């Protein structure tokens, strides 16, 4: 244990210094994630995240505290605990005020909150039929469905900004986004773009989006509001700063890259926007008291995942550099492993290094014959079942393949990963190639949702 002297206001030093945890060791990291299946090369942290044993233990304590005396827990612990978590998140993302931070189940819930507000604006006549929502073509599938469910049904129209892939620079994205907004203004003078939905990190293919520059373009083109879907951001992207980014709404999961259990995310709503119309989709007793309060009680359920954020901070601060140090090391390692794989397969990465975070798109050998989404899903299943490698596969739809590559693997790197995990993946693909395997050898099936 390391010692940290406690200095009082009068300048004296306490005789009982506070003990700080020692820096975490490789053995302790392995122990924290010993509940992972050791036989699987787990290269898909980006989908479901991970949670260390110490945090799971703290979650269990919160669950037992509730079960011992639910009334006492509700009146004396729950609200204070969630406020504590919100305060930590507020500092983590440099929000102006804790009231700008609400805790919800996941980024999908946050998306529903923002789109629900837009739906009411259409129904109440504040938006006109034909007013638009702009989103990236690579927006997450459930976000596209949510826009369809809320905005399209209310009379709005959807404009998709098509992006190239592979990506060669941020300019590719900035140029296409600006052209899309300019085209809307030029072709439709009667309607407005009411909302832009921008990813911070697209899921599939995984690309770090220059969100601040796109937000600036939205302001220049008089887009009413900007919502950043940053499901992967916290614990993955450096410098997540609400004041710097300047969006009206921003959401990120805390289970993907910030070591929380499932069912915890946050939504930031800038105080200068009209947040009175923001409400949790589940209406409970706290309705009308502000989104943060509404979200803190949506009926009797397990709130333990939302209460362990302080414990997660203790965990990440055991690593050199805290969460920023973790992010940098994960980025450096995933790039190194990605470069190792493309060298072995004679392919290429899908983005420049700086446009990857803790995930990178790795081109797969063209001889595998990935010709559609079903092939990609079947190959993913085959790798899981026969090689114990878990990795998402992306089919690159459209023309202009680079080097004939039509399939990419999205590899993640988190603190529990080891180099042998990526060697296992490399060797599995090499074996398939050497045996003349193609995806046509696999029976067709309906693609599942990619996460």
UniProtKB/TrEMBL annotation:
Membrane-traversing stretches: none
Residue span, Aminotransferase class V domain: 79-273
Pfam families for the chain: Aminotran_5
Alphabetized UniProt keyword annotations: Pyridoxal phosphate
UniProt keyword Protein biosynthesis present: no
SUPFAM superfamilies: PLP-dependent transferases
Taxonomic lineage from the root: Eukaryota, Viridiplantae, Streptophyta, Embryophyta, Tracheophyta
Name used for this protein in its record: Aminotransferase class V domain-containing protein
Organism the protein comes from: Vicia faba (Broad bean)
